[in-house]
Amino acid sequence: MALDRSFKDQVEFAAYCREWLAKNRPEPTRIPLPQAAYEVTLPEHREYLEDWQNKCYKAGLIATDLPVEYGGHGFEGFQQVATSEVQKANVPYFINWIGLGMAAPTLLTHGTESQKRNFLPTIFSAKDIWCQGFSEPGAGSDLASLQAKAERKGDSWIVNGSKVWNSLGALASWMLLLVRTDRNDKYGGLTYFVCAMDSPGVSVKPIHKMTGESGFNEVHLEDVVIPDDQRVDEVGAGWKVAMSTLTSERGAATGVGAVASSDSPMSHVERLVDLAKSTTRNGLSSWDDPAVRDRITRLYVRVSALVENGKRAQSKHLSGSAMRLPLQFKLVHSEILQEIHQVALSILGPSSSLYVGDADAVEEGKWALGYMNTYTNTISGGSSEIQRNILGERVLGLPKTK
Ligand SMILES: Cc1cc2nc3c(=O)[nH]c(=O)nc-3n(C[C@H](O)[C@H](O)[C@H](O)COP(=O)(O)OP(=O)(O)OC[C@H]3O[C@@H](n4cnc5c(N)ncnc54)[C@H](O)[C@@H]3O)c2cc1C
Questions:
Q1: Fewest C-beta atoms under 10 Å: which of 128, 171, 210, 389?
Q2: Atom of ligand 1 nearest to the CA of 381
Q3: Mean pLDDT of the region 60-76
Q4: Which of 141, 246, 369 gets mutated to test ligand 1 (max ligand atoms within 8 A of its CB)?
Q5: Domain spans of the chain?
Q6: Which is nearest to 374 in space by CA: 338, 332, 331, 327?
Q7: How is domain 10-128 classified at the architecture level of CATH?
Q8: What is the pLDDT of residues 79-129, one digit of tens each?
Q9: Cα(172) to centroid(ligand 1), Å
Q10: Per CATH, the architecture of 131-249 is what?
């Protein structure tokens, strides 16, 4: 799918992206969108976001640098530009975030030629939504202890077990599935498949979060038949493939344009400044309270450093190993977001207990909702403790804990 345009360089392509985004920005939805793509459940949000992602794909903002035979646009060095313009434009996020951010990079690295040709185009267009079936009730941080199993039967595999915390599972057509094919080998006994969510034996049950949202799910697999041509890489190579998916999830992939949230870290600090200016305590604007100002200024400095590090990470020569800067970014970004929301709640004082749907809630209760949702990022894709372990052991070379 080649775009009918020739661009001289990145500057010209960036100008095209800006102009396209300004002209095609969709009208807001009747009911506001959830804060991030993981929490989409309403059919009208789904349709709106699928349509938006498909338009962005057709315009060349997704799969920008990928080969045309896999549904890409065949440019070189333009994806970064497109992604950064999408982030700056404050437009809706891409619903197929797991498809773009995890499934596509994994299939590009480990998939067969026919898997790439069959699956990638509909990931880009959002025709098929993808989810990730890794975690189990007894296997999160220690993912390799997972127990869902696949047994070979002719040209197929029979899968039984349960997955949990499965984001977008209720909307997905396909799932990235990690299962056990050998009980006697913890890491070498794992195999990676893609599983059609409409296969007989797959059932999805929403989990209700403390926020009131229910974007993630339990997925039960009972005698589910998966053809062998839906296996990704070799039997027993599942751990290697899963690590590649997680590296993408944690931000190390150059990506194909995944943007899971419309808010940049700096836009949160700007909102915090506005909140402080508009909140009065003891007759004084919170912005004039030196203690509040000091906390916001410190956050501003740290977010500025985070943004600059993000730029460094885009250059291979400055970023070091695939793990280093992207992993630091995930860790620091998720924790700073939590701190920004904590400061907002302390500025709001007692009224921070008003929530989405309460008549007098400041900014419709978004700060309280956002605060609870910041725990998503410090847990999912590997908790902050696990990121620190990886950075310590694999990047800094400190002794291993086990
Ligand atoms: C919003 C959300 C969406 C998610 N979406 C998906 C999804 O789509 N698909 C999917 O497969 N999974 C998903 N997950 C699951 C996520 O990957 C796990 O929650 C995460 O890996 C942690 O596992 P756990 O919940 O089992 O916690 P546990 O592993 O039980 O950890 C409990 C606590 O112990 C700490 N801990 C554990 N081991 C160590 C260690 N070695 N060193 C130091 N501290 C440790 C952890 O940091 C944590 O604080 C999602 C999670 C959330 C919150």
A1: 210
A2: 17
A3: 95
A4: 141
A5: 10-128, 131-249, 265-395
A6: 338
A7: Orthogonal Bundle (1.10)
A8: 989 998 998 898 999 999 999 999 999 999 999 999 999 999 999 999 999
A9: 21
A10: Beta Barrel (2.40)
pLDDT tens, 151-166?
999 999 999 999 999 9
Nearest 5°: phi and psi at 318?
Answer: -105, -15
Quote the tokens at residue 212: 């009131």
Which residue among the candidates 50, 85, 136, 249 is catalytic per the annotation?
249
Mean pLDDT for 63-73 is 96
Backbone angles phi, psi at 152, to 5 degrees: -75, 135
Residue 255: φ, ψ to 5°: 80, 175
pLDDT over threshold 90, residue 351: yes
The helix or strand, by DSSP H or E, that contains position 327, with its residue range, turns out to be helix 324-348
Tell me the two tokens of residue 293. 């100002």
Report whether residue 379 contacts ligand 1, using a CB cutoff of 6 Å.
Answer: yes
Output the DSSP codes for 121-156.
HHHHTTSS-EEEE--BTTBSSSGGG---EEEEETTE
* Residue 322 clears pLDDT 70, i.e. is over it: no
* Beta strands in 75-201, from DSSP E residues, in sequence order: 130-133, 149-153, 156-167, 174-180, 190-196
Which residue has tokens 């938006």? 52
249: annotated active-site residue = yes
What pLDDT sits at residue 310?
Answer: 81
CB count within 10 Å of CB 106 equals: 26
The CATH architecture that domain 265-395 belongs to is Up-down Bundle (1.20)
* Angle in degrees, CA 387, 388, 394, rounded to 5: 85
Give the number of residues written for the chain.
402
User: Can you tell me the distance from the alpha carbon of 313 to that of 308, in angstroms, rounded to the nearest whole number?
Assistant: 9
Return the residue whose CA atom lies nearest to atom 38 of ligand 1.
141
Q: Tell me, in angstroms, the distance from the centre of ligand 1 to residue 143's CA.
A: 9
Judged by DSSP in three states, 233 sits in coil
Atom of ligand 1 nearest to the CA of 169: 8
